[in-house]
Amino acid sequence: MTETTKATTPTAKATTPATPATTASAGVLVSEQGKTSIADTVVSKIAGIAAREISGVHDLGGGAARAVGALRERIPGSRTNLSQGVAVEVGEHQAAVDLDIVAEYGVAIADLAAAIRRNVVDAVERMTGLEVTEVNITVHDVFLESEESDDEPATTRVQ
């Protein structure tokens, strides 16, 4: 019986350091009292909000998703789709996130991607207790602020 205890004790100690501190404080998803399931949409909204918090992210989504989002925002009473441009895979203990972003011009894309990854991993792990295995980021476009002022009429070549 003591051999069994010794065999299980190192395993428990080995898994404890690998588990993030945020997961331990958030609690376990499976316990003697029941199981907690987290839907894909929950993780997708958390990741979308966390990505938008980073300075240098203009928008999320590819061209078609942004066009649909722009139409949706024009409808009275509609809300912004917080999971636009976010795809996730959620398991019982882990999650993987794919983000499609539009970066602002002048921002270092590698630094932007690193900041997004840190924020998304921190938010998802803290709020859900799931381990984030990867955050893949695709930059679809670079946003340029309009150089034309609305006050100035456009110059024409002919009259």
From TrEMBL:
Pfam families: Asp23. InterPro entries: Asp23 (IPR005531). It comes from the Bacteria. Belongs to the asp23 family. This is Putative alkaline shock family protein YloU.
